[in-house]
Amino acid sequence: MKSGDLKKVALVGTGFVGMSFAYALLNSGECDQLVLIDINKEKAKGEAMDLNHGLPFAKRNMLIYAGEYSDCHDSDIVVIAAGVAQKDGEGRIALLKRNYEVFKSIIEPIVNSGFDGIFLVATNPVDIMTKITLELSRFDPSRVIGSGTTLDTARLRYLLGDYFSIDPRNVHAYVIGEHGDSEIVPWSQAYITTKKVHDIVDSSNGRFSFDDLYKLSKDVTGAAQEIIKAKTATYYGIGMALVRIVRAIFGDEKSALTVSVMLNGQYGVKDVYAGLPAIIGRNGVEDIIVLDLKESERTAFINSCEFLKQTAKEIGF
Ligand code: NAD
């Protein structure tokens, strides 16, 4: 741990996502210190006060305060959920360029503070913003992680649990690729307990169907838009997903989580960040699990990566 034996997290961006993460982190008691940083200093201050007033009810004590980038120097993990919202009529690339400028103003002072822990990025488009974080920080890719498809995987497991009437924690299935429209569910790798989803459907006498599963995967991809339509933003799920990743890091858990990682030749793909199950521990990404994909799944994954590469190229990455 950087700060003596204390576990310290710095959060940049105290909006819906950042504060859902902070609130979940306070409730889980995953760290000793949490510093909140935002361009809107008043907001960070108010959020720190509000969280502190929950401390008497929390399961453990924590030091929570609003701070500056210099406070990152002894942090173990910097979580980034800062970003600008899409303006009316603004294209994807224009938004990306503005978020790149935001990241320039964030990553440089963090690195200059002497921070040498792990970056965990949630800002969208998360795969590309994570690559930008890597380029701007020049850290080793093992220490620059995006939330990737952790949330999408959780949504998939929840929906499969509901469909097959089983605890989602007994569902072993992944969403991989872009956190976005080109993401895929490799059904050949989906299990309920130790049984292949394929076999369960085949032997169900029509009770379950591949059509239903296909619709379910579309619901996963469309979930964010549906929630945004209903309540303008999504934040609780991603807040908990970020806490899950932080716990895997602090606990040196070696957990398989579908974070956004830098591909280094897996499936013949290089130099792109995309969601894949990776082993997460105290050193960040300790390994990337290569799945035994069917040819069609492999092609879809490669296409998703190609889309991310092209998009990043459009803003010079
Ligand atoms: P929000 O507008 O509520 O919060 C953004 C925060 O960033 C604000 O507090 C703002 O003041 C701050 N900020 C803006 N520019 C800054 C700068 N230059 N320096 C420091 N702070 C700055 O937005 P939100 O709903 O919290 O969403 C944040 C990001 O998370 C968005 O990009 C959103 O798309 C993304 N998101 C990701 C996932 C995922 O699965 N990865 C899920 C939901 C949302």
List keywords for this structure.
317 residues; alpha/beta; Rossmann fold; L-2-Hydroxyisocaproate Dehydrogenase, Chain A, domain 2; six-stranded parallel β-sheet; three-stranded antiparallel β-sheet; 12 strands; globular; binds nicotinamide-adenine-dinucleotide
Give your account of this protein's structure.
α3 (92-112) packs parallel to α4. The strands form 3 sheets. A 6-stranded parallel β-sheet has the order 3-2-1-4-5-6, sandwiched between helices. The protein has a 3-stranded antiparallel β-sheet with strand order 7-8-9. A 3-stranded antiparallel β-sheet has the order 10-11-12. It has 9 helices and 12 strands. It has 2 domains: 8-146, Rossmann fold, CATH 3.40.50; 150-313, Alpha-Beta Complex (L-2-Hydroxyisocaproate Dehydrogenase, Chain A, domain 2). The mean pLDDT is 96. The chain is globular and about 60 Å long. It starts with 7 loop residues before the first strand and ends with a helix. The protein is an alpha/beta fold.
Total tally of structural domains: 2
Query: Which regions are unreliable across 5 or more consecutive residues at pLDDT < 50?
Result: none
What is the spatial order of strands in the main beta sheet? 3-2-1-4-5-6
Apparent shape: globular
Distance between the termini: 32 Å
User: Helical segment tally?
Assistant: 9
CATH A-level architecture of the largest domain: Alpha-Beta Complex
Q: pLDDT average, as an integer?
A: 96
Amount of beta strand: 15-25%
